Amino acid sequence: MPVVLVTVLVVVVAGGARSVADATSTEAGAVTMGAVRVQPQPGWQQDGPVTPTVARLHKGPVVLEISVAGPVPGGPILLATLYRQQRLEPAFSQFATTSPESALLRNGAAAVRFTYVGISADGVSLEGLVVAAETADTSVVFDARAPSGVLAGALDDIREMVEGATI
Fold it and tell me: In this predicted structure, what is the pLDDT of residue 78?
């Protein structure tokens, strides 16, 4: 009986936290940060305020963080490497990534992609996809992440938002 009560309590608290997050976020219209404009797919919500350098969107447990900055002298490969080293690796107790792959976005921006799996300090396993893109004036990193096994269901939306972005 105590195990059942604890399980029910955990489910109620977790569901309530997501409900509060959903209630305080807004259905996302176009997100603009300087020269970068992203059109969220249906069902995606803005998570918190958009700043000149960062925006967060979510659809359920899937989060897409968009980080914008000036150009990086080493191009998208260095941009992706710096993002991995400075933002991702310190955030996880365990971290693994695929090799970066070069790409060209639909709008012509040079890009690099890689996937990752990380385990947080409290044991939560997350998987992610990073796309780092750059033009002559702007760099942008798209970091999509979700609990393990969930990201695959949102990849079409994520690809459409990344590929359709104005950079």
Answer: 96
